Amino acid sequence: MASTWRAAIAALALTAATGVPAMAQDKKVESVTDLGVYPPWQEGRNDDAVDRGFGFTIADADNLADFHGNPQNPLLSLYVGGNYFFAMAPLVAAFEAKYPEYRGRLYWETIPPGLLVRQMQAGGTVTVGNMTWTVKPDVYLAGEKAVEKQIEAGLLQGPVVPYATNTLAIMVPKGNPAGIKGLADLGRPGVKLAMPNPEFEGIARQIEASLTKAGGASLADAVYKTKVQDGSTQLTHIHHRQTPLWLMQGKAQAGVTWQSEVEFQKQAGHPIEGVDIPAADNTTAIYAGAVAKNAAHPEAARRWLAFVRSPEGLAIFERYGFKPYTGAAK
């Protein structure tokens, strides 16, 4: 036990001294703190702050993986549906290269769209653990219909700006030990699933539509009703992080996510694989954004929305399998 604490303290000291996360400095720390499994998974790259001060991250205890940058007086605040948290670091870097006046002054969150709406309704205030802070959004980015809904609700102002599309895939542990071949297999008794929560994760509605295409209402009910009741379906709160984490921890054997999330986990070197869903059963999402009502930085907001649909921005999305929005996807 003493050696474990010494290693953890040493990791903190390395981070504080150099500004580089301990995982990037000493791979031996992974065996002590599981930094290779617990998010954040990008070794500090998803942080826009220039001066990071004392580094303190304990992967499975003190970790704000979905909140990025410095919340004090940002020049652009982004509420981003968490489906592409992994693309934000290169997107922000490219945006700041284009507009250097914003360097180190972006703040963004990547929790599910429905939870971001709750935060907007709370005036931008959020509490995580023992910490409470307030940052109101300049831009809200989610599925096209979710953006339209919040314009109607008065939290956003038009126009809706669509920019990319995505499709679903089944995420499984490396080797696919449960032998998942398609959506129909998710209804098998005993197969443990990690599935997005329909209460606030828009992807859940699209998953239910695909389950119905593949196996009728009985398959959708099996996955989202029967198996929830018997405990073999666990509902996530932040699906883009919990699903691969639970798969790697052995808590689940499969889960439906966006195919881009499977691609990121593979690129990160994690023991994750994907099972393709045929086009006839799949569902396409359209990602869009809009400026927040009474945004503090409307010009920066418009610049961001123009950037994510530009060739440079779309090229970054394409690294993870997203496709440019053409107006044809529904």
UniProtKB/TrEMBL annotation:
Q: What is this protein called?
A: Substrate-binding domain-containing protein
Give start-end of the signal peptide.
Answer: 1-24
Q: Which SUPFAM superfamilies match?
A: Periplasmic binding protein-like II
Which InterPro entries does the record associate with it? ModA/WtpA
Instruction: Provide the alphabetized UniProt keywords.
Output: Signal
Is ATP-binding given among the entry's keywords?
A: no
Keyword Signal applies:
yes
The record's Pfam families line, in alphabetical order, gives:
SBP_bac_11
